[in-house]
Amino acid sequence: MNIRVCPLCEADGGLLVFRNEELRIIQASEAGFPAFYRVVWNRHVAEFSELSPAEREVCMNAVVVVEQVLHAELQPTKINLAALGNMVAHLHWHVIARFDWDSHFPAPVWAAPQRPAEADRLAALAARCLQVNRRIAQTMAL
Fold first, then answer.
1. Predicted structure pTM score
2. Could you tell me which residues come within 8 angstroms of residue 51 by beta carbon, excluding any fewer than 6 positions away?
3. What is the mean pLDDT of residues 83-112?
């Protein structure tokens, strides 16, 4: 029998920003992308369609909160949303602030880099994410 352990059932999956009974929001540890967040459904389900209509609304409202906070705090060029789940079949949404100067823009973060990463800009962005984290937590707690 091949039993696979789900990494998102076993651990938060990054820096925990907010958690309630239904979901958690984490700042992912993705090199070169400090403004990379995930909304992770706490209960193990693989597909968005496995949620009830009310649960889907809760989940998408959290995605919207993260997107709105990233937009307001960081003014990115674009915000990418994705729910792939090919590597980890546990429902989670990627919410990623993208900038025209980032190493992969305009390609997806999973593609080959388009240019070298700019360490100074990444460090400044990472510092700004501390306020992003606080604001996400405050907004979700309302």
1. 0.95
2. 41, 45, 59, 91
3. 95
